[in-house]
Design goal:
Chain A is an all-alpha fold and 569 residues long. Chain A contains 26 helices and no strands. Helix content of chain B is 75%, strand content 0%. Chain B contains 4 helices and no strands. The chains are: A mainly alpha (569), B mainly alpha (80). Chains A and B meet through helix 19, helix 20, helix 23, helix 24 and helix 26 of A and helix 1, helix 3 and helix 4 of B.
């Protein structure tokens, strides 16, 4: 039976007798690759998750690992979880159904599934342990599928998704559990994370009830992603981004997109990896690795199959590079599963938000529309919680929007220190007035309009600053610099010089054009969102954006024009 | 006859790719004839590309967390 309609079931009361825990040898040790640090981190993670003190019994661990294994061909799951004796018939307990749903239909998981476990007697730390155990099963199967020479039956190559068995989509509050409060153990692992990412991902915070499990994940993250002995970090995060997209995981796509941005990867390149990696301007070998990694994805309905290690070696990758790439893929599947199970909300503005429609690709499948508009604003659940008095969730909103708000205010005020203060003031005003936010626009747009008002008030307190031709109206403006530009202006000067020119040019624009340009081009808001934040009509917004662009073009032209005199229109 | 002034009036939509089909063909015909407007299209597109990719107003990653913690500390005081 493969039904996931949990509501209304008679609660399954779990056994209170624990019989120890499983021990599984690292899959990497069987692959005979010289990646001892990753192998040790894999082992430590398995030990932390399968530790009996987490509260799950041996049979429950069996059930959850078997649930993960069910999504992979028999040779793969047998190799990955050699000591797991599969139940010939699923035991159909609440935990078994939870595990199978999480493993096969992760994006469909909702708070209701966690609530069903709570109703069956599972406290929150046990739910974290259950999610982590399924995720461990996925990690081990991914490693086995990627690194061991195993037969992969043709029928399993294209994972079938049976529309009759696909669970109904349910939009519920996220995250599904509350994050644990801080303690010393967690702070230690958080320090590693802060060094690694510069922040503490929500995904890890949500596992704070099991600090050893969270710490072991941090160790694996650090060991897999940080070193550049074989693959470099941009290659690793490219692989992870590509696979997270194949898994339709908004959270992980956002995380890796943000890290790629911090590593200096062009946003267009990141988008290309998401849209069609073959069109991305990365090396051909890296494209191949991204495409191969997607075959190790979790979701049925996508092309799945064994990794073509031979093709990767032909493309120039060494065995150790392939091994590292597979470890990245396994880590990605692990973290995607944790996110699906706990419902962690993205740490930043999502780079790509996957919606219900993405999950129903076959025309034969019903495309549910229930509450589909709720997912239009990724912040709405957090805002609801803050409104309900759960103030600590406001921290996620602040972290998610700080950089965008700062960028706008720095562009308005021209002074980083003042922009920092104004950014904080913006968030405080938003918090004080959050009850007045009625979700008519997105929260991010509402927040931006507060930032603009804050910046404008500050500018009003100053003396007028120098600006370009403020007296001219939109219609009378005519471009003056009409010398043709060099083909590749970004290459004509050092990046720091280009940045300085843009900063100077933007700051010299009259305020109304500057703000429009900051929102539309630097923050890359849509015209509609820019208009909403500015409180202007669409035509008026378009006129201001165009004027800002043309005026900035005038100030940049002398630096990027080909040699020769100016002409006037 | 589509003039440079007509072109500038439609230029905003043209840059956004939202020009009506009939107007778009007039613009393209004008650009084949008018070097000056062609330069404006090219240089404005490059301006947008430069400004879109700029790091000019970026907040360093290490500076995010102190702002978050300051805001939350003030939020907690407000709540009391």
């Amino acid at each position: 039976m493969d039904s996931f309609t949990l509501a209304g079931d008679e609660p399954f009361k779990r056994s209170q007798s624990f019989t120890g825990s499983l021990e599984l040898a690292p899959v990497l040790s069987r692959a005979k690759l010289r990646l001892p640090a990753i192998c040790a981190a894999e082992d430590a993670l398995a030990r932390a998750i399968l530790n009996g003190s987490n509260g799950l019994s041996l049979s429950e661990q069996h059930t959850l690992l078997a649930a993960a294994g069910q999504q992979w061909p028999v040779p793969v799951r047998s190799a990955a979880n050699e000591c797991v004796i599969e139940n010939p018939v699923p035991n159909d307990s609440v935990l078994d159904r939870f595990g199978r749903k999480l493993a096969r239909y992760g994006p469909w998981c909702s708070k209701d599934d966690c609530d069903a476990l709570v109703a069956a007697g599972y406290r929150e730390s046990l739910i974290v342990a259950a999610v982590a155990t399924v995720a461990l099963g996925q990690l081990r199967c991914t490693l086995a599928a990627g690194l061991l020479d195993l037969p992969w039956p043709e029928s399993n190559y294209v994972g079938a998704r049976d529309s009759k068995l696909t669970p109904a989509w349910k939009e519920t509050a996220s995250p599904f559990l509350a994050p644990a409060t801080a303690d010393d153990d967690r702070e230690q692992s958080y320090a590693t994370l802060t060094a690694l990412f510069g922040f503490i991902p929500n995904l890890i915070r949500l596992q704070g009830l099991l600090p050893r499990v969270a710490s072991a994940q941090v160790e694996l993250l650090d060991t897999v992603l940080s070193p550049e002995d074989h693959l470099i970090q941009t290659q690793k995060h490219g692989i992870a981004l590509s696979l997270a997209a194949a898994n339709y995981n908004t959270y992980m796509v956002t995380l890796h997109g943000e890290i790629l941005s911090l590593l200096g990867v062009d946003a267009r390149e990141t988008q290309a990896i998401l849209d069609n990696v073959e069109q991305a301007s990365i090396a051909d070998g890296d494209k191949l690795f991204c495409m191969e990694s997607r075959k190790l994805g979790l979701l049925p309905g996508n092309v799945r199959g064994p990794l073509s290690r031979g093709a990767l070696r032909t493309a120039g990758f060494t065995e150790l590079q392939v091994g590292e790439g597979v470890a990245v893929a396994a880590l990605t599947n692990f973290l995607c599963t944790i996110q699906f199970g706990l419902g962690a909300v993205p740490d930043f503005q999502p780079l790509r938000a996957f919606h219900i429609k993405d999950l129903y690709l076959s025309s034969a499948e019903t495309r549910p529309t229930e509450n589909s508009t709720c997912s239009q604003d990724p912040d709405i659940e957090l805002v609801s919680r803050v409104k309900a008095g759960e103030t600590e969730w406001f921290e996620n909103l602040v972290r998610c929007h700080t950089r965008r708000i700062f960028r706008t205010l720095f562009g308005m005020l021209g002074n980083a220190e003042e922009a920092r203060d104004a950014t904080q003031d913006t968030f405080l005003k938003a918090f004080e007035h959050i009850d007045k936010f009625e979700a008519r626009s997105r929260f991010s747009t509402w927040l931006m309009s507060i930032a603009i008002n804050t910046g404008t008030e500050q500018l009003r307190r100053r003396r007028p600053i120098e600006s370009l031709d403020e007296s001219e109206d939109e219609k009378s403006f005519r471009p003056r610099q009409v010398q043709s530009w060099v083909d590749d202006p970004e290459q004509a000067l050092a990046k720091s010089q280009v940045n300085a020119l843009v900063r100077k040019g933007v700051l010299r624009l009259p305020e109304k054009y500057r703000v429009a340009l900051l929102l539309r081009d630097i923050n890359q808001l849509s015209t509609e969102d820019t208009a909403e934040a500015l409180g202007l009509s669409i035509p008026a917004t378009k006129a201001r954006v165009l004027r800002g662009r043309l005026m900035l073009r005038e100030s940049l032209a002398p630096h990027f024009s080909r040699a020769g005199g100016d002409r006037h229109v | 006859m589509f003039s440079c002034a007509d072109f500038l009036a439609e230029f905003g939509d043209y840059l956004e790719g939202s020009t009506k089909p009939g107007i778009k063909s007039c613009i393209e015909e004008h650009l084949r004839e008018c070097r000056t407007c062609k330069v404006i299209v090219d240089s404005t597109s490059k301006t947008i590309r430069i400004v879109t990719e700029t790091d000019s107003f970026l907040l360093p990653a290490d500076d995010v967390e102190p702002i978050v913690q300051n805001v939350m500390s003030r939020v907690r005081k407000l709540k009391r």
